[in-house]
Design goal:
By secondary structure, this protein is of the alpha+beta class. It is built from 16 helices and 20 strands. The strands form four sheets. A six-stranded mixed sheet has the order 1-2-6-3-5-4, sandwiched between helices. Helix 6 runs antiparallel to helix 7, helix 6 crosses helix 8 and helix 15 runs antiparallel to helix 16. The radius of gyration is 29 Å and the shape is flat.
C-alpha cells in the first residue's frame, strides 16, 4: 500500500486482483447529526449522486456511523469522471430536489426495515451521538436548503476527506476539486447507563449484547471465540437458535464495540437467554484452552491477511487516517493476531462483561447479575398536574423546567427543556418529547382539556420542534413510559378490560344468588342456573388471567 496525495487529499493506493475501484471518504456520518436533524447526511449523499444517475459504470454512496463514502468501480476514465462529478455536485448541490429526495429517503426507510438489535445504541448512548443510529430519519421534514448547504461546507472538505484506490495507481487526470475546511473530530461518547453490566427488555424473543472493549487484536480474537461458542451452544448442540452473529467494529477513539445476537422462538426464548449468558460467563470465568484459541486466532489472521487483503482493508485504513490513528501493516496485523494469548482474551472478556448491555426477552437478566437499564426519570418537572378526561393515561406536568408524565403507579418520565433531543409534532396536536437520555413523554392534547400544543411549543428551544406528517410514531419504539401507556390502549388490553368486566358481572351475580339461596333471602332460585353462573364466571376468569399474563409479558 502506498500513501500519496491528490489535490491535498490523502490518498491510499493498493493493488487488487479484481476490477479497479475507489472511494472518497468524508469524516461525517449519522452520529454527527442531532435527532432533530436526523437524516441530513444521508440526504446530502442522495443529492450529490442524483446527477450521476445515468452513468454506465457502477457507483454508489453510503452513510455510516461516522463516515460517508462515494464509491465507484470501473476503468481509470470512470474513476476520473465519477470524482469530478461528485466534487461538482458538492460545490453546486441541487437543493431544488430537497422535497423529492425526502420522499425517496422515506420510501427507502419503509423498505429497509430495522435489525433485531437496532435499539442497542440508544439504550447505551441515549438520543444523541452514536445513539442516533437507533432512530428514524425524523429530521428530514425540517431540513432547509441553507442547513444542507452549511452541512456540506463544514464537512465535505479536502481536509476532512481521504481517497482510497484499489488498482494500479492514481489514474491520469483524476482531480478532487474540494473546498478547504478542517478535520472534524469524532462525536462525543455519551451514556444513558448509570451502571453496567445492564439489561433491557427488547420486546421480542431474541437476545443480544453490546460491549465496549479496547481496540486491539485481542478484541478481534475474542469476537471470533464468542461467535464459535454461541454457534456451538445455541445452534449445533441444542438447536435453540438458527442465527448467531458477532460483529467487531472500531469506533475510532481507541475503543471498539462487540455486538452479538441470537434469534429464538417464543417458547425457547428463556433457554436461549440462559445459553447466551452462560457463553459470556464462560469466556470471562476461565481462560480459553490452547486449541480453541489457536483456531480462533488463525481464522482471524486468515481473514486479515487473505487474498487481496491490502485492497480489502483500504476503507478501514482510510477511517484510521481520518481519526488520527496510524495505518496498519497487513503482515504486522496478521502476526499480532496470531500472537494473542489466552490471558489477552481473558482480560478482554472481563472488559466486555464490565461494559455489557444485554437485550433480553421479557423477564430480564437480574438473576445473572445485570442491572435494569433506566426506563423512568428520578425527578418530576414542576407545574400542576393535568389529568386525562377519558381512556386512562398519565398525569402530565407542564412546568417551567420541563414536561413529565406520571403513571398511576407513580413512575415518572421527564424531559427537561435544556435536555430535549427533539419534539415531534403531529397534525392532531399530539407531541412526542424525547430527551437526550432517550426518555420519552407522549402528550395527546385531545385528552387533556386544559392543555394545548401552543402551551408546550413555546417552551421548546428553537430548531427542536419537528412537524411530521401523518399519525404519531409508535411510542414503543423507544424506552419510555409512553410505551407503557400505548400498550394499554391496544386491542389486547381492551380485550382484557372486557374479560374483567364480564367476569365481575357474572361472578358477582352468581355470588349474590348463592348467598340469597343459603340465607333464604331469594325465593325460587334455580340451582342449575346458579351452578351455570359459576361455571361461566370461572371460564371468563381463567380467560382473564391468561390475557393478563400475556399482556404483562409484553409490557
Amino acid at each position: 500500500m502506498s500513501h500519496v496525495e491528490v489535490d491535498g487529499v490523502p490518498t491510499l493506493v493498493a493493488p487488487t486482483v479484481g476490477p479497479a475501484r475507489a472511494g472518497l471518504v468524508f469524516r461525517v456520518g449519522q452520529a454527527d447529526e442531532t435527532l432533530a436533524r436526523r437524516g441530513l447526511t444521508h440526504l446530502v449523499e442522495h443529492l450529490v449522486l442524483h446527477p450521476l444517475g445515468g452513468s454506465t459504470y457502477h457507483h454508489n454512496g453510503s452513510t455510516g456511523q461516522t463516515t460517508t463514502t462515494f464509491y465507484v468501480q470501473g476503468g481509470g476514465d470512470d474513476l476520473v469522471d465519477f470524482f469530478a462529478r461528485v466534487c461538482r455536485s458538492l460545490a453546486e448541490p441541487d437543493v431544488g430536489r430537497l422535497a423529492m429526495e425526502r420522499d425517496v429517503l422515506r420510501t427507502e426507510a419503509t423498505g429497509r426495515g430495522s435489525g433485531p438489535a437496532r435499539d442497542l445504541p440508544l439504550w447505551r448512548y441515549g438520543a444523541r451521538g452514536y445513539g442516533l443510529l437507533s432512530y428514524p430519519e425524523w429530521g428530514l421534514s425540517a431540513l432547509t436548503a441553507d442547513e444542507v448547504l452549511e452541512w456540506i461546507a463544514t464537512h465535505f472538505t479536502r481536509e476532512n476527506a481521504v481517497l482510497w484506490i484499489a488498482g494500479d495507481g492514481v489514474p491520469d487526470g483524476l482531480r478532487l476539486d474540494l473546498p478547504h475546511g478542517r478535520r472534524q473530530p469524532l462525536p462525543a461518547v455519551t451514556s444513558a447507563l448509570p451502571t453496567t453490566p445492564a439489561f433491557f427488555n427488547g420486546g421480542g424473543p431474541a437476545t443480544a449484547v453490546h460491549a465496549v472493549v479496547p481496540e486491539a487484536p485481542a478484541g478481534i480474537v475474542y469476537a471470533h471465540l464468542l461467535q464459535r461458542r454461541l454457534h456451538r451452544a445455541l445452534r449445533l448442540d441444542t438447536g435453540l437458535s438458527y442465527t448467531t452473529a458477532v460483529e467487531y467494529v472500531e469506533r475510532g477513539d481507541g475503543q471498539a464495540t462487540v455486538t452479538a445476537y441470537a434469534d429464538a422462538l417464543v417458547d425457547k426464548q428463556d433457554a436461549v437467554l440462559g445459553g447466551f449468558v452462560d457463553v459470556l460467563a464462560g469466556l470471562r470465568a476461565t481462560p480459553v484452552a490452547g486449541t480453541e484459541l489457536a483456531t480462533a486466532a488463525t481464522t482471524a489472521a486468515l481473514e486479515a491477511g487473505g487474498t487481496d487483503a491490502a485492497a480489502q482493508g483500504l476503507p478501514g485504513q482510510a477511517f484510521r487516517l481520518l481519526t488520527g490513528r496510524p495505518l496498519v501493516d497487513v503482515d504486522a496485523q496478521v502476526a499480532a493476531l496470531r500472537a494473542v494469548t489466552a490471558a489477552d482474551v481473558h482480560a478482554t472478556a472481563k472488559q466486555a462483561h464490565a461494559s455489557a448491555l444485554l437485550m433480553t426477552p421479557p423477564g430480564g437478566a437480574e438473576w445473572a447479575g445485570y442491572t435494569p437499564a433506566p426506563t423512568t426519570s428520578r425527578t418530576r418537572a414542576g407545574g400542576r398536574g393535568h389529568v386525562p378526561t377519558a381512556g386512562g393515561g398519565p398525569v402530565i406536568h407542564l412546568g417551567a423546567d420541563g414536561v413529565s408524565a406520571v403513571d398511576p403507579d407513580g413512575n415518572v418520565a421527564t424531559v427537561r427543556y435544556d435536555e430535549i433531543a427533539v419534539v415531534l409534532g403531529h397534525p392532531d396536536g399530539s407531541r412526542l418529547l424525547i430527551g437526550n437520555d432517550g426518555i420519552v413523554v407522549a402528550v395527546d392534547v385531545d385528552r387533556y382539556p386544559d392543555l394545548n400544543a401552543a402551551q408546550l411549543d413555546r417552551r421548546v428551544p428553537p430548531g427542536l420542534l419537528v412537524a411530521l406528517p401523518g399519525p404519531p410514531p409508535p411510542a414503543s419504539a423507544t424506552p419510555n413510559l409512553g410505551a407503557r401507556w400505548a400498550r394499554r390502549l391496544t386491542p389486547g388490553w381492551l380485550r382484557l378490560g372486557a374479560l374483567g368486566l364480564v367476569t365481575a358481572v357474572v361472578g358477582g351475580a352468581a355470588l349474590a344468588y348463592t348467598v340469597g339461596m343459603v340465607f333464604g333471602l331469594v325465593a325460587q332460585v334455580r340451582v342449575l342456573g346458579v351452578i351455570g353462573g359459576w361455571v361461566i364466571a370461572g371460564w371468563f376468569g381463567r380467560a382473564f388471567l391468561r390475557a393478563w399474563t400475556a399482556e404483562r409479558a409484553r409490557a
